Amino acid sequence: MALLRKINQVLLFLLIVTLCGILYKKVHKGTMLRNEADDDSETPEEMEDEIPVVICAAAGRMGAAMAAINSIYSNTDANILFYVVGLRNTLSRIRKWIEHSKLREINFKIVEFNPVVLKGKIRPDSSRPELLQPLNFVRFYLPLLIHQHEKVIYLDDDVIVQGDIQELYDTTLALGHAAAFSDDCDLPSSQDIHRLVGLQNTYMGYLDYRKKTIKDLGISPSTCSFNPGVIVANMTEWKHQRITKQLEKWMQKNVEENLYSSSLGGGVATSPMLIVFHGKYSTINPLWHIRHLGWNPDTRYSEHFLQEAKLLHWNGRHKPWDFPSVHNDLWESWFVPDPAGIFKLHHPNS
Fold it and tell me: pTM of the entire structure?
């Protein structure tokens, strides 16, 4: 009898240890992406009316996120909830910038991204080191940011929105599609685009087709690529298809086999998405992602074309807050000065 009691005590102890381990794992995972405003409660009706927009605010280019937010908020009557994502050491500065500027009226939540989630998943070598910044991979983890919403918009920080964001949010996603992107071959004014020397618009520019792992995918290198700087995502499908896990798998494969970090496109975050979403995404109206404004400081779009655009994206090295850059006047019209005086424009006349 005493032996049986002792065995039961041991089994009970092991059960408690196991439960504690599971609980710790869940809590630890939850800290990778932590929402400062998780205590805020919202009714189902309020959540239905909200348009969640995720945008990252990196330390060295926080003014970009603020300009993007200003342009979105100023051009719509919709109820926008901004999820502003940053690293721990920038969260107080993000809040100060919003609350001590014209942006104080926006509805927002500040979210901390813990880069520990990326440990062992990123190769250190890249033709563009800035693309290795942790916040560049936030788009992979949208379901850990958005818990209440079925649909979400993700935007890169180097964009300006000139249309009503409600139109972008209303983008139709086909059954079984977790996201919508802009096809690189569907850009308007393609004759202007082709003058941008070195621009990549096919999978060949992002994947290394010399590697067997890439060849085995069976994807033609001439397949049109897409740009993940503007995403309309369905969170239910994203979770159902385990998109985040798939993306992490292709990050890990790149660490082991160097599948795309040396590609012409330099698309460290783009390449895994091209693989995971191949043939399984919906498309965004081309006017809602006019891009490559940061590709070449000597190439300009026509003013009429830019006025028609709903969203402008300065992807590339030449950002509108730096010099040299093009069409920076359009970006500056939405710039919100930094209350702390840290972020400054680098233009000859600024």
Answer: 0.85
The confidence score (pLDDT) of residue 298 equals: 84
**pLDDT reported for residue 16:** 64
Q: Are 101 and 66 in contact (CB under 8 A)?
A: yes
**Counts for the chain of helices (H) and strands (E), in that order:** 13, 10
Domain extent listing, the chain: 49-184+195-331
Token pair of 136 as six digits: 């560049």
CA distance 186 to 301: 16
Where do we find the tokens 């850990």? 144
Coil, helix or strand at residue 55: strand
**Beta strand extents in 174-242 (DSSP E only):** 179-183, 226-234
Give residue 28's pLDDT: 41
Kindly state the helix (H) or strand (E) to which residue 109 belongs, with its residue range: strand 107-113
Superfamily name and number for 49-184+195-331: Spore Coat Polysaccharide Biosynthesis Protein SpsA; Chain A (3.90.550.10)
End-to-end, the C-alpha distance of the chain in Å comes to 86
CA–CA distance, 323 with 346 (Å, rounded to integer)? 6
For residue 25, the model assigns a pLDDT of 43
Q: Report d(CA 210, CA 200) in Å as an integer.
A: 18
pLDDT the model gives residue 21: 55
Residue 252: Cβ-neighbour burial (10 angstroms; 0-12, 13-18, 19+): middle
Tell me how far apart the alpha carbons of residues 133 and 122 are, in angstroms, rounded to a whole number. 10
Taking CA atoms, 29 is separated from 25, 83, 143, in Å, by 6, 19, 13
Rg of the chain (C-alpha set): 22
Peptide bond into 348 cis (omega under 30): no
Contact 310, 167 (CB under 8 A): yes
Pairwise CA distance, residues 83 & 23, whole Å: 27
Q: Which two tokens stand for residue 216?
A: 């085995």
